[in-house]
């Protein structure tokens, strides 16, 4: 391990050692309280009855656990439907992004057609535009697509297609493809492989890690998104889970809303715990060298 | 006499350049899906937003109105309140949300144990849907009675309790707290990665020169991570200026005495409740100009020295 701010030797000697272990304990306990504490409070708070939650001082453990709150959340808010919708949008977003963004990044990295750099530049320029600035004209576009005169409101394409226009993912994929040696491409062409065949049989199998990162980003992006699905998926039948909970919040008991929020958070938390290594490496790789 | 031209050109093309054309076409075929999506949902809306801000659509009839939308938006008293709130949030979030993750990353980087666990903890809130996390804050943490989590802690510590979102002065700090808790994980991980790139020799040399811990942070850590610090500060400012979901959920939009109204919330209000998409588009353009001007000044300053 390389040396950091404080040397190893200093941390292992008498006083340094004591300070190190004290600080480590304080930080581990403190972080657990700060980051897991609220989640614990959320999960157990949703188990409390209406009276217990209003009690002073609040109870650390639910005295009379009410799993009924979670059942109520599931049935009253029709969470099964909301979860299904969100999964469906997330899966489609992954598929569309993988197909179109991978193809585009492959073209920009390996096929390099005329004006490729101009197109890449125009794509990267969109990273400079804050999402809020475009929300109104994007909505206008979705309610009345130019040329086609179609409305995508309440159609999953209103989520899938804009997700493809993700310059960050294309950049991430392109950079990965750039690192694949040119000789491999040349060898494939000499063997008579078409560009599509080369992509499918040579490039993609080598790119599994980055494809995984892009997929996870797509799922969490759809899962966490709020304003866009609120606007383009207004019908109760097509809502995403975050929007559904928000829409019901006003007329629903607080504990039930929080119970629903716990259920809504579970899938992303589970995905994170399983894929944490890929997520963290993808996050830092994409931002550091970018 | 225009028709034969392409045929002639075709005949004159050598096999080599014909292949080049074919390769280009293949390349563009791979690009077409993404390019169409960018064109429809990014490039066209950019232009459309600008055009819309100079038009007014009433009962299906669109007319050019010059600067009317801008004047109407600026005339609205909530415009200035929203900017004041947004700048306040951005400033406060920068002080808290910028210094805290950097310091946390420096501490985490020194640990030889429990590093993975701590990293997972810090990033966990980032993975929660913001709506979920904000309902937790709204109903349990910021409950203004003494039954609320934060007030219970304050009572336990014999400190005065707060009304949180009910109090116009606490609204912004409370939103910054929630937002920092939800979002700081990303910054911590990026700092951690850049701290790991600092060569140990630099610290070694600084220590031999008699530099203490703070001096080493000041003279080695900060200069070595300056670029990433500047970049993240910029990204954070752009992100926090778009403050939206925190006021919407925590403060039901405007908050007590308009203490939560943000520019983004105003765009939402104009566009989708006051039937004023043109005004909302004008507000969007104003926001873009402010952010662009800000970025330009910032880039100038951070690349100067």
Automatic annotation (TrEMBL), chain A:
Question: Which membrane topology term applies here?
Answer: Multi-pass membrane protein
What Pfam families does its record include? BPD_transp_1 (PF00528)
Q: Where are the transmembrane segments?
A: 20-41, 87-108, 115-137, 157-177, 198-223, 256-275
Q: Name one GO biological process term.
A: transmembrane transport
Record InterPro entries: MetI-like (IPR000515), MetI-like_sf (IPR035906)
Keywords associated with the record: Cell membrane, Membrane, Sugar transport, Transmembrane, Transmembrane helix, Transport
Could you tell me where this protein is found in the cell? Cell membrane
Gene Ontology CC annotations of this record: plasma membrane
Q: What is this protein called?
A: Multiple sugar transport system permease protein
Protein source organism:
Actinoplanes campanulatus
UniProtKB/TrEMBL annotation, chain B:
Pfam families in alphabetical order: BPD_transp_1
Stored InterPro entries? ABC_transporter_permease (IPR051393), MetI-like (IPR000515), MetI-like_sf (IPR035906)
Stretches assigned to coiled coil: none
**Location within or outside the cell:** Cell membrane
Indicate the segments forming the ABC transmembrane type-1 domain, all copies.
83-298
Where mainly located? membrane
Topology in membrane: Multi-pass membrane protein
Transmembrane intervals: 25-44, 87-108, 120-141, 174-193, 227-245, 280-299
The protein's UniProt keywords, in alphabetical order, are: Cell membrane, Membrane, Sugar transport, Transmembrane, Transmembrane helix, Transport
Gene Ontology CC annotations of this record: plasma membrane
Q: Which GO terms describe its biological process?
A: transmembrane transport
Xref: PANTHER family: ABC TRANSPORTER PERMEASE PROTEIN, DIACETYLCHITOBIOSE UPTAKE SYSTEM PERMEASE PROTEIN NGCF
User: What family does the entry list?
Assistant: Belongs to the binding-protein-dependent transport system permease family.
Its protein name is Multiple sugar transport system permease protein
Its source organism is Actinoplanes campanulatus
């Amino acid at each position: 391990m390389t040396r950091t701010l404080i040397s190893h030797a200093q941390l292992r000697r008498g006083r340094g050692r004591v300070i190190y272990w004290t600080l480590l304990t304080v930080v581990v306990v403190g972080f657990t309280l700060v980051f897991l504490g609220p989640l614990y409070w959320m999960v157990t708070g949703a188990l409390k009855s209406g009276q217990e939650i209003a009690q002073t001082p609040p109870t650390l453990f639910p005295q009379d656990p009410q799993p009924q709150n979670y059942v109520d959340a599931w049935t009253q808010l029709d969470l099964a439907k909301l979860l299904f919708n969100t999964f469906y949008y997330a899966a489609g977003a992954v598929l569309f992004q993988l197909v179109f963004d991978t193809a585009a990044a492959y073209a920009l990295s390996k096929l390099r057609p005329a004006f490729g750099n101009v197109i890449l530049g125009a794509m990267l320029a969109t990273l400079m535009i804050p999402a809020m600035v475009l929300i109104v004209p994007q909505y206008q576009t979705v309610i009345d697509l130019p040329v086609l005169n179609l409305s995508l409101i309440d159609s999953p394409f209103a989520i899938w297609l804009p997700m493809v226009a993700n310059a960050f993912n294309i950049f991430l994929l392109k950079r990965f493809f750039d690192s694949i040696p040119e000789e491999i491409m040349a060898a494939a062409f000499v063997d008579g492989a078409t560009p599509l065949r080369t992509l499918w049989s040579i490039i993609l199998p080598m790119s599994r890690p980055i494809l995984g990162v892009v997929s996870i980003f797509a799922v969490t992006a759809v899962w966490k998104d709020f304003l866009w699905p609120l606007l383009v998926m207004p019908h109760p039948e097509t809502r995403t889970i975050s929007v559904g909970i928000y829409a019901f919040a006003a007329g629903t008991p607080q504990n039930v809303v929080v119970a629903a929020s716990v259920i809504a958070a579970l899938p992303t938390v589970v995905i994170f715990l399983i894929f944490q290594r890929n997520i963290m490496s993808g996050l830092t790789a994409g931002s550091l060298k970018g | 006499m225009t028709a034969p031209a392409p045929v002639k050109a075709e005949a004159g093309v050598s096999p080599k350049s014909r292949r080049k054309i074919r390769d280009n076409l293949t390349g563009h075929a791979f690009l077409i899906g993404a390019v169409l999506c960018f064109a429809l949902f990014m490039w066209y809306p950019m232009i459309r937003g600008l055009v819309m801000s100079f038009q007014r659509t009433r009962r299906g009839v669109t007319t050019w109105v010059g600067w009317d939308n801008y004047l109407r938006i600026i005339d609205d008293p909530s415009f200035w309140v929203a900017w004041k709130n947004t700048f306040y949030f951005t400033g406060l979030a920068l002080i808290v949300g910028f210094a805290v993750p950097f310091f946390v990353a420096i501490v985490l980087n020194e640990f030889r144990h429990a590093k993975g666990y701590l990293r997972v903890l810090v990033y966990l809130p980032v993975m929660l849907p913001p709506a979920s996390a904000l309902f937790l804050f709204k109903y349990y943490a910021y409950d203004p009675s003494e039954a609320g989590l934060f007030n219970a802690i304050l009572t336990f510590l014999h400190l005065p309790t707060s009304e949180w979102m009910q109090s116009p002065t606490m609204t912004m700090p409370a939103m910054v707290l929630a937002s920092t808790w939800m979002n700081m994980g990303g910054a911590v991980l990026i700092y951690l990665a850049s701290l790991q790139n600092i060569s140990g020799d630099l610290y070694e040399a600084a220590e031999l020169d008699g530099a203490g811990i703070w001096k080493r942070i000041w003279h080695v850590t900060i200069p070595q991570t300056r670029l990433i610090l500047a970049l993240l500060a910029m990204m954070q400012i752009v992100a926090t200026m778009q403050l939206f979901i925190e006021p919407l959920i925590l403060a039901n939009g405007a908050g007590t005495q308009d203490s939560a109204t943000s520019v983004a919330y105003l765009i939402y209000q104009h566009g989708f409740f006051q039937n004023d998409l043109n005004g909302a588009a004008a507000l969007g353009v104003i926001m873009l100009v402010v952010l662009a001007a800000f970025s330009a000044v910032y880039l100038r300053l951070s690349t100067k020295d």
